[in-house]
Design goal:
heterodimer, A: 317 residues, mainly alpha, Formate dehydrogenase/DMSO reductase fold, 73% helix, B: 246 residues, alpha+beta, Alpha-Beta Plaits, 3-stranded mixed β-sheet, 3-stranded antiparallel β-sheet, 19% strand, globular
Chain lengths: 317, 246
Protein backbone atom coordinates (compact mmCIF):
# COMPACT_ATOMS: atom_id res chain seq x y z
CA UNK A 1 0.00 0.00 0.00
CA UNK A 2 1.19 3.48 -0.75
CA UNK A 3 0.92 5.96 2.04
CA UNK A 4 -1.19 9.00 1.26
CA UNK A 5 0.57 11.64 3.28
CA UNK A 6 -1.52 14.39 1.77
CA UNK A 7 -5.20 13.62 1.92
CA UNK A 8 -8.52 15.37 1.55
CA UNK A 9 -7.59 18.55 3.46
CA UNK A 10 -4.80 19.22 0.95
CA UNK A 11 -7.07 18.36 -1.99
CA UNK A 12 -9.72 20.72 -0.64
CA UNK A 13 -7.13 23.40 0.03
CA UNK A 14 -5.74 23.26 -3.51
CA UNK A 15 -9.28 23.58 -4.86
CA UNK A 16 -10.36 26.35 -2.49
CA UNK A 17 -7.19 28.39 -2.85
CA UNK A 18 -7.49 28.14 -6.61
CA UNK A 19 -11.14 29.15 -6.50
CA UNK A 20 -10.46 32.18 -4.31
CA UNK A 21 -7.43 33.22 -6.34
CA UNK A 22 -9.44 32.89 -9.53
CA UNK A 23 -12.32 34.89 -8.10
CA UNK A 24 -10.01 37.74 -7.08
CA UNK A 25 -8.22 37.76 -10.43
CA UNK A 26 -11.49 37.85 -12.34
CA UNK A 27 -13.04 40.44 -10.05
CA UNK A 28 -10.04 42.75 -10.21
CA UNK A 29 -9.66 42.38 -13.98
CA UNK A 30 -13.33 43.09 -14.57
CA UNK A 31 -13.17 46.11 -12.29
CA UNK A 32 -10.09 47.53 -13.95
CA UNK A 33 -11.41 46.85 -17.42
CA UNK A 34 -14.81 48.46 -16.78
CA UNK A 35 -15.18 52.21 -17.07
CA UNK A 36 -16.86 54.61 -14.62
CA UNK A 37 -20.32 53.18 -15.36
CA UNK A 38 -19.30 49.59 -15.53
CA UNK A 39 -21.93 47.12 -16.65
CA UNK A 40 -20.16 44.35 -14.83
CA UNK A 41 -19.75 45.96 -11.42
CA UNK A 42 -21.84 43.18 -9.87
CA UNK A 43 -19.38 40.60 -11.18
CA UNK A 44 -16.50 42.47 -9.56
CA UNK A 45 -18.49 42.77 -6.35
CA UNK A 46 -19.37 39.09 -6.07
CA UNK A 47 -15.83 38.05 -6.93
CA UNK A 48 -14.41 40.40 -4.33
CA UNK A 49 -16.79 39.16 -1.64
CA UNK A 50 -16.10 35.51 -2.43
CA UNK A 51 -12.30 35.64 -2.79
CA UNK A 52 -10.95 35.71 0.79
CA UNK A 53 -13.37 33.13 2.21
CA UNK A 54 -12.32 29.92 0.39
CA UNK A 55 -8.64 30.83 0.63
CA UNK A 56 -8.82 31.40 4.38
CA UNK A 57 -10.86 28.22 4.77
CA UNK A 58 -8.35 26.24 2.72
CA UNK A 59 -5.44 27.56 4.76
CA UNK A 60 -7.30 26.58 7.90
CA UNK A 61 -7.64 23.05 6.54
CA UNK A 62 -3.90 22.99 5.81
CA UNK A 63 -3.05 23.95 9.36
CA UNK A 64 -5.47 21.32 10.62
CA UNK A 65 -3.69 18.71 8.53
CA UNK A 66 -0.21 19.50 9.91
CA UNK A 67 1.37 16.71 11.93
CA UNK A 68 2.34 19.12 14.69
CA UNK A 69 -1.19 20.49 14.97
CA UNK A 70 -2.63 17.01 15.25
CA UNK A 71 -0.48 16.10 18.22
CA UNK A 72 -1.40 19.29 20.04
CA UNK A 73 1.23 21.86 19.11
CA UNK A 74 -1.52 24.28 18.12
CA UNK A 75 0.67 27.20 17.16
CA UNK A 76 3.74 25.43 15.77
CA UNK A 77 2.68 26.45 12.24
CA UNK A 78 3.66 30.03 13.06
CA UNK A 79 7.23 28.81 12.46
CA UNK A 80 6.37 29.29 8.79
CA UNK A 81 6.60 33.03 9.39
CA UNK A 82 10.05 32.90 10.96
CA UNK A 83 11.84 32.24 7.68
CA UNK A 84 11.69 33.11 4.03
CA UNK A 85 13.38 30.56 1.82
CA UNK A 86 12.95 29.25 -1.69
CA UNK A 87 10.80 26.31 -0.69
CA UNK A 88 7.59 26.61 -2.69
CA UNK A 89 5.69 26.19 0.55
CA UNK A 90 7.51 29.09 2.18
CA UNK A 91 6.92 31.34 -0.82
CA UNK A 92 3.31 30.15 -0.85
CA UNK A 93 2.82 30.91 2.82
CA UNK A 94 3.80 34.52 2.32
CA UNK A 95 1.81 34.78 -0.89
CA UNK A 96 -1.29 33.38 0.78
CA UNK A 97 -0.90 35.67 3.76
CA UNK A 98 -0.69 38.72 1.55
CA UNK A 99 -3.52 37.36 -0.53
CA UNK A 100 -5.86 36.95 2.43
CA UNK A 101 -5.03 40.43 3.72
CA UNK A 102 -5.34 42.15 0.38
CA UNK A 103 -8.46 40.29 -0.72
CA UNK A 104 -10.14 40.93 2.64
CA UNK A 105 -9.45 44.65 2.28
CA UNK A 106 -10.60 44.52 -1.32
CA UNK A 107 -13.78 42.72 -0.27
CA UNK A 108 -14.36 45.31 2.43
CA UNK A 109 -14.56 48.10 -0.15
CA UNK A 110 -17.44 46.21 -1.76
CA UNK A 111 -19.15 45.23 1.48
CA UNK A 112 -21.76 47.96 1.53
CA UNK A 113 -25.01 47.13 -0.22
CA UNK A 114 -24.76 50.51 -1.93
CA UNK A 115 -21.29 49.90 -3.31
CA UNK A 116 -21.21 51.36 -6.80
CA UNK A 117 -18.66 52.74 -9.25
CA UNK A 118 -17.59 56.18 -8.13
CA UNK A 119 -18.44 55.84 -4.42
CA UNK A 120 -16.03 56.83 -1.66
CA UNK A 121 -14.00 53.60 -1.91
CA UNK A 122 -13.62 53.76 -5.68
CA UNK A 123 -10.00 54.94 -5.72
CA UNK A 124 -8.89 52.49 -3.05
CA UNK A 125 -10.71 49.66 -4.75
CA UNK A 126 -8.91 50.26 -8.03
CA UNK A 127 -5.53 50.53 -6.36
CA UNK A 128 -6.04 47.20 -4.60
CA UNK A 129 -7.31 45.64 -7.82
CA UNK A 130 -3.94 46.37 -9.46
CA UNK A 131 -2.35 44.34 -6.67
CA UNK A 132 -5.07 41.71 -6.79
CA UNK A 133 -4.49 40.51 -10.35
CA UNK A 134 -0.85 39.44 -9.94
CA UNK A 135 -1.51 38.17 -6.42
CA UNK A 136 -4.40 36.00 -7.58
CA UNK A 137 -2.40 34.59 -10.46
CA UNK A 138 0.54 34.05 -8.11
CA UNK A 139 -1.50 32.02 -5.63
CA UNK A 140 -3.10 29.97 -8.41
CA UNK A 141 0.25 29.19 -10.01
CA UNK A 142 1.84 28.42 -6.66
CA UNK A 143 -0.64 25.62 -5.96
CA UNK A 144 0.74 23.85 -9.02
CA UNK A 145 4.37 24.68 -8.29
CA UNK A 146 3.97 23.25 -4.79
CA UNK A 147 3.32 19.83 -6.28
CA UNK A 148 5.64 20.22 -9.26
CA UNK A 149 8.86 20.84 -7.35
CA UNK A 150 9.79 17.22 -6.70
CA UNK A 151 11.56 14.84 -9.11
CA UNK A 152 10.64 12.04 -6.70
CA UNK A 153 7.00 12.51 -7.73
CA UNK A 154 7.05 12.03 -11.51
CA UNK A 155 3.32 12.59 -11.94
CA UNK A 156 3.54 16.06 -10.42
CA UNK A 157 6.96 16.99 -11.75
CA UNK A 158 5.65 18.69 -14.87
CA UNK A 159 6.01 22.36 -15.73
CA UNK A 160 2.58 22.36 -17.30
CA UNK A 161 0.83 21.29 -14.10
CA UNK A 162 1.05 24.82 -12.68
CA UNK A 163 -0.44 26.15 -15.92
CA UNK A 164 -3.26 23.63 -15.67
CA UNK A 165 -3.94 24.64 -12.08
CA UNK A 166 -3.90 28.32 -13.02
CA UNK A 167 -6.48 27.79 -15.78
CA UNK A 168 -8.59 25.60 -13.56
CA UNK A 169 -8.35 28.18 -10.75
CA UNK A 170 -9.58 31.01 -12.95
CA UNK A 171 -12.26 28.77 -14.44
CA UNK A 172 -13.56 27.70 -11.01
CA UNK A 173 -13.35 31.33 -9.87
CA UNK A 174 -15.53 32.34 -12.81
CA UNK A 175 -17.90 29.46 -12.07
CA UNK A 176 -18.19 30.51 -8.42
CA UNK A 177 -19.01 34.09 -9.44
CA UNK A 178 -21.47 32.85 -12.06
CA UNK A 179 -23.19 30.67 -9.51
CA UNK A 180 -23.41 33.47 -6.95
CA UNK A 181 -24.52 35.86 -9.63
CA UNK A 182 -27.36 33.53 -10.62
CA UNK A 183 -28.41 32.67 -7.09
CA UNK A 184 -28.45 36.29 -5.90
CA UNK A 185 -30.44 37.50 -8.88
CA UNK A 186 -34.08 38.49 -8.40
CA UNK A 187 -36.36 39.40 -11.28
CA UNK A 188 -36.32 43.15 -11.66
CA UNK A 189 -38.84 45.44 -13.32
CA UNK A 190 -36.06 47.72 -14.49
CA UNK A 191 -35.09 46.63 -18.02
CA UNK A 192 -31.62 48.14 -17.60
CA UNK A 193 -30.87 45.96 -14.58
CA UNK A 194 -32.03 42.87 -16.47
CA UNK A 195 -29.87 43.81 -19.43
CA UNK A 196 -26.83 44.23 -17.24
CA UNK A 197 -27.52 40.89 -15.60
CA UNK A 198 -27.66 39.17 -18.96
CA UNK A 199 -24.54 40.92 -20.25
CA UNK A 200 -22.56 39.92 -17.17
CA UNK A 201 -23.83 36.36 -17.48
CA UNK A 202 -22.67 36.35 -21.08
CA UNK A 203 -19.25 37.74 -20.21
CA UNK A 204 -18.68 35.10 -17.54
CA UNK A 205 -20.06 32.20 -19.57
CA UNK A 206 -18.05 33.14 -22.63
CA UNK A 207 -14.86 33.51 -20.56
CA UNK A 208 -15.49 30.18 -18.91
CA UNK A 209 -15.89 28.48 -22.28
CA UNK A 210 -12.57 29.88 -23.41
CA UNK A 211 -10.87 28.87 -20.15
CA UNK A 212 -12.24 25.35 -20.33
CA UNK A 213 -11.05 25.08 -23.92
CA UNK A 214 -7.56 26.11 -22.84
CA UNK A 215 -7.75 23.72 -19.92
CA UNK A 216 -8.62 20.81 -22.19
CA UNK A 217 -5.71 21.76 -24.42
CA UNK A 218 -3.38 21.87 -21.42
CA UNK A 219 -4.59 18.48 -20.21
CA UNK A 220 -3.96 17.13 -23.69
CA UNK A 221 -0.41 18.47 -23.66
CA UNK A 222 0.17 17.17 -20.13
CA UNK A 223 -0.95 13.68 -21.11
CA UNK A 224 0.75 13.67 -24.48
CA UNK A 225 4.16 14.77 -23.30
CA UNK A 226 4.01 12.44 -20.32
CA UNK A 227 3.03 9.56 -22.53
CA UNK A 228 5.70 10.31 -25.12
CA UNK A 229 8.48 10.20 -22.54
CA UNK A 230 9.90 6.90 -21.45
CA UNK A 231 10.47 5.80 -17.89
CA UNK A 232 9.23 7.49 -14.74
CA UNK A 233 6.80 10.00 -16.17
CA UNK A 234 5.23 7.59 -18.60
CA UNK A 235 4.75 4.98 -15.90
CA UNK A 236 3.24 7.59 -13.60
CA UNK A 237 0.78 9.02 -16.09
CA UNK A 238 -0.47 5.56 -17.02
CA UNK A 239 -2.41 5.65 -13.75
CA UNK A 240 -4.96 8.00 -15.31
CA UNK A 241 -4.87 6.50 -18.78
CA UNK A 242 -6.88 3.53 -19.93
CA UNK A 243 -6.50 0.68 -17.48
CA UNK A 244 -5.06 2.87 -14.72
CA UNK A 245 -6.41 2.92 -11.18
CA UNK A 246 -7.69 6.49 -11.48
CA UNK A 247 -8.74 6.40 -15.12
CA UNK A 248 -12.50 6.50 -14.58
CA UNK A 249 -12.25 9.17 -11.90
CA UNK A 250 -10.21 11.31 -14.22
CA UNK A 251 -12.02 10.79 -17.49
CA UNK A 252 -15.57 10.83 -16.13
CA UNK A 253 -15.45 13.34 -13.29
CA UNK A 254 -12.72 15.71 -14.46
CA UNK A 255 -12.81 15.61 -18.24
CA UNK A 256 -16.38 14.70 -19.10
CA UNK A 257 -18.44 16.11 -16.24
CA UNK A 258 -16.14 18.95 -15.26
CA UNK A 259 -14.95 20.17 -18.64
CA UNK A 260 -16.49 18.73 -21.80
CA UNK A 261 -20.17 18.79 -20.84
CA UNK A 262 -20.10 22.30 -19.28
CA UNK A 263 -18.10 23.60 -22.22
CA UNK A 264 -20.57 22.19 -24.74
CA UNK A 265 -23.56 23.61 -22.88
CA UNK A 266 -21.84 26.98 -22.51
CA UNK A 267 -20.94 26.99 -26.16
CA UNK A 268 -24.54 26.25 -27.05
CA UNK A 269 -25.63 29.15 -24.84
CA UNK A 270 -23.18 31.76 -26.08
CA UNK A 271 -23.27 31.04 -29.80
CA UNK A 272 -26.54 32.96 -30.53
CA UNK A 273 -25.15 36.05 -28.81
CA UNK A 274 -21.65 35.59 -30.19
CA UNK A 275 -22.54 35.11 -33.84
CA UNK A 276 -26.03 36.50 -34.35
CA UNK A 277 -26.06 39.19 -31.64
CA UNK A 278 -29.22 37.76 -30.17
CA UNK A 279 -30.07 38.28 -26.55
CA UNK A 280 -28.24 36.04 -24.12
CA UNK A 281 -30.99 34.07 -22.41
CA UNK A 282 -30.26 31.16 -20.13
CA UNK A 283 -32.67 28.86 -18.42
CA UNK A 284 -32.42 29.08 -14.66
CA UNK A 285 -31.45 25.43 -14.25
CA UNK A 286 -28.50 25.82 -16.62
CA UNK A 287 -27.41 28.90 -14.73
CA UNK A 288 -27.00 26.74 -11.63
CA UNK A 289 -26.02 23.34 -13.00
CA UNK A 290 -23.25 24.38 -15.39
CA UNK A 291 -21.09 26.33 -12.90
CA UNK A 292 -21.77 23.64 -10.29
CA UNK A 293 -20.41 21.02 -12.69
CA UNK A 294 -17.33 23.16 -13.33
CA UNK A 295 -16.75 23.43 -9.58
CA UNK A 296 -17.12 19.66 -9.12
CA UNK A 297 -14.71 19.11 -12.00
CA UNK A 298 -12.19 21.53 -10.48
CA UNK A 299 -12.32 19.69 -7.18
CA UNK A 300 -11.97 16.32 -8.85
CA UNK A 301 -8.98 17.56 -10.86
CA UNK A 302 -7.16 18.38 -7.62
CA UNK A 303 -8.29 15.10 -6.12
CA UNK A 304 -7.06 12.96 -9.00
CA UNK A 305 -3.76 14.84 -9.28
CA UNK A 306 -2.99 14.71 -5.55
CA UNK A 307 -3.79 10.99 -5.28
CA UNK A 308 -2.11 10.05 -8.57
CA UNK A 309 1.10 11.78 -7.50
CA UNK A 310 1.26 9.77 -4.32
CA UNK A 311 0.47 6.31 -5.67
CA UNK A 312 3.06 6.59 -8.43
CA UNK A 313 6.81 6.69 -8.10
CA UNK A 314 10.00 6.53 -10.12
CA UNK A 315 10.51 3.14 -11.71
CA UNK A 316 13.61 1.21 -10.76
CA UNK A 317 15.79 1.83 -7.77
CA UNK B 1 40.47 14.67 -3.93
CA UNK B 2 37.56 13.67 -1.77
CA UNK B 3 36.14 10.23 -2.13
CA UNK B 4 32.59 11.59 -2.22
CA UNK B 5 32.94 12.31 -5.90
CA UNK B 6 33.72 8.68 -6.71
CA UNK B 7 30.21 7.88 -7.79
CA UNK B 8 30.06 10.61 -10.41
CA UNK B 9 33.23 9.26 -11.96
CA UNK B 10 33.16 11.90 -14.67
CA UNK B 11 35.97 12.71 -16.99
CA UNK B 12 35.95 16.32 -15.90
CA UNK B 13 36.56 15.37 -12.30
CA UNK B 14 39.41 13.12 -13.28
CA UNK B 15 40.83 15.98 -15.29
CA UNK B 16 40.58 18.29 -12.29
CA UNK B 17 42.14 15.61 -10.16
CA UNK B 18 45.02 15.47 -12.61
CA UNK B 19 45.38 19.24 -12.52
CA UNK B 20 45.43 19.24 -8.74
CA UNK B 21 48.09 16.56 -8.73
CA UNK B 22 50.15 18.51 -11.24
CA UNK B 23 49.76 21.66 -9.16
CA UNK B 24 50.77 19.82 -6.03
CA UNK B 25 53.85 18.46 -7.74
CA UNK B 26 54.89 21.87 -9.01
CA UNK B 27 54.54 23.70 -5.71
CA UNK B 28 56.58 23.17 -2.60
CA UNK B 29 54.19 21.26 -0.35
CA UNK B 30 54.00 22.26 3.26
CA UNK B 31 52.43 19.59 5.44
CA UNK B 32 51.27 19.90 9.00
CA UNK B 33 49.62 22.90 10.61
CA UNK B 34 48.93 24.75 7.38
CA UNK B 35 46.90 21.87 5.86
CA UNK B 36 43.32 23.03 5.24
CA UNK B 37 40.75 21.40 7.47
CA UNK B 38 38.90 18.71 5.59
CA UNK B 39 35.11 18.81 5.73
CA UNK B 40 33.65 15.70 7.22
CA UNK B 41 30.98 13.78 5.36
CA UNK B 42 29.69 10.74 7.13
CA UNK B 43 28.51 8.00 4.84
CA UNK B 44 27.70 4.35 4.82
CA UNK B 45 28.70 1.49 2.60
CA UNK B 46 26.42 -1.52 2.41
CA UNK B 47 28.16 -4.62 1.19
CA UNK B 48 25.14 -6.65 0.13
CA UNK B 49 27.33 -9.71 -0.52
CA UNK B 50 27.65 -9.98 3.24
CA UNK B 51 24.03 -9.26 4.13
CA UNK B 52 21.93 -12.29 5.08
CA UNK B 53 18.71 -10.40 5.77
CA UNK B 54 18.63 -11.11 9.50
CA UNK B 55 16.97 -7.72 10.14
CA UNK B 56 19.05 -7.20 13.28
CA UNK B 57 19.95 -3.70 12.09
CA UNK B 58 16.29 -2.81 11.63
CA UNK B 59 15.47 -4.11 15.11
CA UNK B 60 18.34 -2.32 16.80
CA UNK B 61 17.41 0.88 14.96
CA UNK B 62 13.85 0.59 16.16
CA UNK B 63 14.82 0.14 19.78
CA UNK B 64 17.62 2.70 19.74
CA UNK B 65 15.51 5.47 18.21
CA UNK B 66 12.14 4.51 19.68
CA UNK B 67 10.61 4.27 16.20
CA UNK B 68 6.82 3.92 16.42
CA UNK B 69 5.23 0.77 15.06
CA UNK B 70 4.22 1.04 11.43
CA UNK B 71 7.24 3.16 10.54
CA UNK B 72 10.91 2.50 9.86
CA UNK B 73 14.06 4.55 9.89
CA UNK B 74 16.01 1.62 8.54
CA UNK B 75 14.78 -1.55 6.93
CA UNK B 76 16.01 -4.46 4.83
CA UNK B 77 14.28 -5.37 1.59
CA UNK B 78 14.35 -8.80 0.04
CA UNK B 79 14.42 -9.29 -3.72
CA UNK B 80 13.59 -12.74 -5.09
CA UNK B 81 14.47 -13.06 -8.72
CA UNK B 82 14.39 -15.64 -11.49
CA UNK B 83 12.64 -18.91 -12.23
CA UNK B 84 13.61 -22.32 -10.97
CA UNK B 85 16.35 -23.45 -11.12
CA UNK B 86 18.03 -20.10 -11.86
CA UNK B 87 17.09 -17.98 -8.87
CA UNK B 88 18.61 -15.59 -6.39
CA UNK B 89 17.59 -13.97 -3.16
CA UNK B 90 19.26 -10.66 -2.43
CA UNK B 91 18.88 -8.28 0.46
CA UNK B 92 18.95 -4.53 0.19
CA UNK B 93 19.39 -2.61 3.44
CA UNK B 94 17.72 0.79 3.17
CA UNK B 95 18.09 4.00 5.12
CA UNK B 96 18.28 7.74 4.62
CA UNK B 97 20.94 8.43 1.98
CA UNK B 98 22.16 11.65 3.69
CA UNK B 99 22.34 13.16 0.22
CA UNK B 100 24.72 15.91 -0.75
CA UNK B 101 21.87 17.54 -2.71
CA UNK B 102 18.97 16.70 -0.40
CA UNK B 103 15.55 17.41 -1.90
CA UNK B 104 13.95 17.25 1.54
CA UNK B 105 16.07 20.22 2.63
CA UNK B 106 15.29 22.32 -0.41
CA UNK B 107 11.52 21.93 0.02
CA UNK B 108 11.42 22.46 3.81
CA UNK B 109 9.47 25.69 4.40
CA UNK B 110 10.71 26.27 7.96
CA UNK B 111 14.36 25.26 7.75
CA UNK B 112 13.66 22.50 10.26
CA UNK B 113 15.54 19.95 8.19
CA UNK B 114 19.07 20.80 7.19
CA UNK B 115 22.42 19.29 6.32
CA UNK B 116 24.80 19.64 9.24
CA UNK B 117 27.93 21.62 8.51
CA UNK B 118 30.17 19.56 10.77
CA UNK B 119 29.51 16.07 9.39
CA UNK B 120 27.08 16.28 6.45
CA UNK B 121 24.27 14.44 8.20
CA UNK B 122 20.77 15.54 7.21
CA UNK B 123 18.83 16.11 10.42
CA UNK B 124 15.37 17.28 11.50
CA UNK B 125 14.96 19.83 14.28
CA UNK B 126 11.94 18.53 16.18
CA UNK B 127 11.27 21.92 17.76
CA UNK B 128 10.98 23.73 14.43
CA UNK B 129 9.33 21.15 12.16
CA UNK B 130 5.61 21.73 11.72
CA UNK B 131 4.83 18.35 10.17
CA UNK B 132 3.73 19.57 6.75
CA UNK B 133 5.00 16.33 5.15
CA UNK B 134 6.49 18.13 2.16
CA UNK B 135 9.87 16.47 2.75
CA UNK B 136 8.19 13.05 2.94
CA UNK B 137 6.76 13.66 -0.53
CA UNK B 138 10.07 14.94 -1.86
CA UNK B 139 12.34 12.09 -0.72
CA UNK B 140 13.06 9.72 -3.64
CA UNK B 141 14.01 6.98 -1.16
CA UNK B 142 10.86 7.03 0.97
CA UNK B 143 13.20 7.34 3.93
CA UNK B 144 11.04 9.78 5.88
CA UNK B 145 7.84 9.41 7.81
CA UNK B 146 5.62 11.44 10.06
CA UNK B 147 6.26 10.35 13.62
CA UNK B 148 2.78 9.99 15.13
CA UNK B 149 4.13 10.59 18.66
CA UNK B 150 5.96 13.84 17.97
CA UNK B 151 3.90 14.95 14.96
CA UNK B 152 7.03 15.89 13.04
CA UNK B 153 9.11 14.37 10.24
CA UNK B 154 11.46 11.61 11.31
CA UNK B 155 14.26 9.74 9.59
CA UNK B 156 17.63 8.07 10.00
CA UNK B 157 20.25 10.51 11.26
CA UNK B 158 23.10 8.00 11.58
CA UNK B 159 22.25 7.93 15.30
CA UNK B 160 23.53 11.47 15.73
CA UNK B 161 23.21 11.27 19.51
CA UNK B 162 25.39 8.15 19.62
CA UNK B 163 27.95 9.80 17.33
CA UNK B 164 28.09 12.73 19.73
CA UNK B 165 29.16 10.27 22.44
CA UNK B 166 31.82 8.86 20.19
CA UNK B 167 29.88 5.64 19.53
CA UNK B 168 28.91 4.09 16.22
CA UNK B 169 25.35 4.04 14.86
CA UNK B 170 23.25 1.23 16.32
CA UNK B 171 22.90 -0.68 13.04
CA UNK B 172 26.67 -0.69 12.55
CA UNK B 173 27.30 -2.07 15.99
CA UNK B 174 24.62 -4.71 15.51
CA UNK B 175 25.54 -5.96 12.05
CA UNK B 176 27.12 -9.29 12.83
CA UNK B 177 28.30 -9.86 9.27
CA UNK B 178 29.98 -6.50 8.83
CA UNK B 179 27.79 -5.75 5.84
CA UNK B 180 27.53 -2.14 7.00
CA UNK B 181 30.57 0.09 7.07
CA UNK B 182 30.32 3.57 8.48
CA UNK B 183 32.80 6.43 8.41
CA UNK B 184 34.00 9.71 7.02
CA UNK B 185 33.92 9.58 3.22
CA UNK B 186 36.32 12.52 2.99
CA UNK B 187 39.03 10.86 5.03
CA UNK B 188 41.07 8.85 2.51
CA UNK B 189 42.41 6.60 5.25
CA UNK B 190 39.01 5.56 6.59
CA UNK B 191 37.85 2.01 5.96
CA UNK B 192 34.78 3.18 4.04
CA UNK B 193 36.84 5.42 1.76
CA UNK B 194 39.28 2.63 1.04
CA UNK B 195 36.51 0.15 0.29
CA UNK B 196 34.71 2.55 -2.00
CA UNK B 197 37.94 3.32 -3.80
CA UNK B 198 38.75 -0.32 -4.38
CA UNK B 199 35.31 -1.74 -5.20
CA UNK B 200 32.69 -1.01 -7.83
CA UNK B 201 29.93 0.76 -5.96
CA UNK B 202 26.52 2.12 -6.86
CA UNK B 203 24.00 4.44 -5.27
CA UNK B 204 20.21 4.24 -5.40
CA UNK B 205 18.35 6.34 -7.95
CA UNK B 206 21.45 8.23 -9.08
CA UNK B 207 19.32 9.80 -11.83
CA UNK B 208 17.47 11.85 -9.20
CA UNK B 209 20.61 13.96 -8.81
CA UNK B 210 20.56 13.78 -5.04
CA UNK B 211 24.20 12.66 -4.73
CA UNK B 212 23.63 10.05 -2.03
CA UNK B 213 26.27 9.32 0.58
CA UNK B 214 25.08 5.77 1.12
CA UNK B 215 26.86 3.39 -1.23
CA UNK B 216 26.21 -0.21 -2.12
CA UNK B 217 28.42 -3.06 -3.27
CA UNK B 218 26.61 -5.57 -5.50
CA UNK B 219 23.19 -4.05 -4.90
CA UNK B 220 20.17 -5.57 -6.63
CA UNK B 221 18.63 -2.60 -8.43
CA UNK B 222 15.82 -4.53 -10.07
CA UNK B 223 12.26 -4.12 -8.92
CA UNK B 224 8.90 -5.59 -9.73
CA UNK B 225 8.44 -3.21 -12.66
CA UNK B 226 11.43 -4.81 -14.37
CA UNK B 227 9.75 -8.22 -14.43
CA UNK B 228 7.61 -7.03 -17.33
CA UNK B 229 10.61 -6.49 -19.56
CA UNK B 230 12.66 -9.52 -18.65
CA UNK B 231 9.79 -11.96 -18.48
CA UNK B 232 10.91 -13.43 -15.22
CA UNK B 233 9.74 -13.58 -11.69
CA UNK B 234 10.80 -10.69 -9.46
CA UNK B 235 9.29 -10.18 -6.05
CA UNK B 236 10.22 -7.40 -3.67
CA UNK B 237 9.38 -7.76 0.00
CA UNK B 238 10.08 -4.54 1.84
CA UNK B 239 9.54 -5.85 5.37
CA UNK B 240 7.96 -2.52 6.15
CA UNK B 241 4.73 -2.88 8.01
CA UNK B 242 2.65 -0.45 5.98
CA UNK B 243 4.55 0.57 2.90
CA UNK B 244 5.43 -1.01 -0.37
CA UNK B 245 8.49 0.10 -2.28
CA UNK B 246 8.14 3.47 -3.84
Amino acid sequence: MHELNWGLPVVAYLFLAGLGAGALTVSASVLLRGGPTSTHFDVARYGALIAPIPVALGCGLLVFELGSFQVGHWFRWLNLYKVINLSPMSVGTWLLTFFIGVSALYGYTFLSRDAAPGDKYDGLRRKIAWLGVPLGIGVAVYTGVLLGAMPARPFWNSPILAMLFLLSAISTGVAAILLTHAIMHRKNEDAEVERRYRESGYLLTASDTLLIGLELGTIFLFLMYAHLTIGNVKAAVSVILSGGALASLFWFWVVLLGLVIPALIELYLIVPRLIYYREFVVHRSFEIVVPAAVLVGGFMLRYVVVIAGQITHPVGL
Amino acid sequence: MDIETEHTDSGRRRFLKGLAAAGAAALPVSTGAAAPERKKQYGMLLDTRRCVGCQACAVSCRSENDVPLGHERSWVEQIDKGSYPNTTVKFLPRLCNQCSEPQCVSVCPTGATYKREQDGIVVVDNDICIGCKYCIQACPYDARFLNPKTGVADKCDFCADRLAQGRQPACIQTCFFRARIFGDLNDPDSEIARLIATNPVTVLRAEMGTMPNVFYIAAEHMGEADARHYDQHIRVTTYRSTRERR
